[in-house]
Design brief:
Radius of gyration: 14 Å
Number of helices: 4
Number of strands: 7
Helix content: 25-40%
Largest sheet: 7 strands, mixed
Order of helices and strands: EEEHEHEHEHE
Strand content: 15-25%
């Protein structure tokens, strides 16, 4: 079993290498206009200390292609190095098509499939989707 954390500006000042973790996933963007300025500090600390890392986009209810474009624009240097993640916890939580459009657009732009982060009880909403097999799921247990 691997142990890891996800972090954002709410944990600014935290140093991943000071913790007993195997991985760290840092918030990079949200919606179509927010870039988390704490992200790169977390990422650089992980790189310098050999900690596996990723970066995530916190979804809002905008056009999924536009959100994917914004995510890739703001994080283009991370692709191919860290693991991209879509954090999908919006009020349209069961809109599988939204996620599929976002994931497809990120893949179209980067050649990389993001992982989908959802609540464990939302898994049945994605039973008929290609996302679990193609992209993988990271399940929240809150």
């Amino acid at each position: 079993m691997m142990h890891g954390i996800d972090v954002s500006n709410w944990q600014s000042g935290l140093t991943p290498s000071d913790l007993s973790i195997d991985f760290c996933i840092a918030k990079a963007t949200e919606g179509m206009g927010y870039t988390d300025r704490s992200c790169d500090g977390f990422v650089q600390n992980c790189i310098e200390n050999g900690i596996l890392w990723g970066f995530y986009h916190f979804a809002r209810e905008n056009d999924p292609v536009a959100e994917a474009d914004y995510f890739v624009q703001e994080t283009k240097n991370y692709f191919g190095n860290g693991i991209p993640v879509l954090d999908y916890e919006t009020t349209n939580w069961n809109d599988c098509e939204w996620c599929e459009q976002f994931m497809s657009r990120v893949h179209e732009l980067t050649g990389v499939w993001p992982v989908l982060y959802i609540s464990a009880y939302r898994v049945p909403d994605f039973n008929d989707s290609w996302i679990p097999q193609t992209c993988g799921l990271w399940l929240a247990g809150y």
